[in-house]
Amino acid sequence: LPLLVSAALLGAVLALPNYVDLIPNGANVRLPCSESNCAVGHQNPAGDGALDAFGYDFAIAGRKWTQALCLQDSDGDGVSNGQELGDPECVWRVGESPARSSDISNPG
């Protein structure tokens, strides 16, 4: 139950700038959205409501970019979260530039 409550609370704020800065290229995720950033971690591109698979996994990881979260394939598309977010080697740290900043896709 505490985990569900934590995930629900996180769902309301995952797309806020301070959370977007906690994942590589968090502000550069545009797909499937076309004109503005998607609310990474939410099912609704506007950012409110239920979490998507990546949002749930991010909550489980303690709202931190971990090697385990990087290596996961939250959306089951055959591409790891790290590859989708430009950190294929899972070495990115908050405040650093990711290995890649183009061809970024939504991990959730």
From TrEMBL:
InterPro entries: S-S_Temptin, Temptin-like. Keywords: Signal. The keyword Iron does not apply. It comes from the Eukaryota. Residues 14-108 form the Temptin Cys/Cys disulfide domain. PANTHER family: EF-HAND DOMAIN-CONTAINING PROTEIN. It comes from Elysia chlorotica. The keyword Signal applies. Residues 1-15 form the signal peptide. This is Temptin Cys/Cys disulfide domain-containing protein.
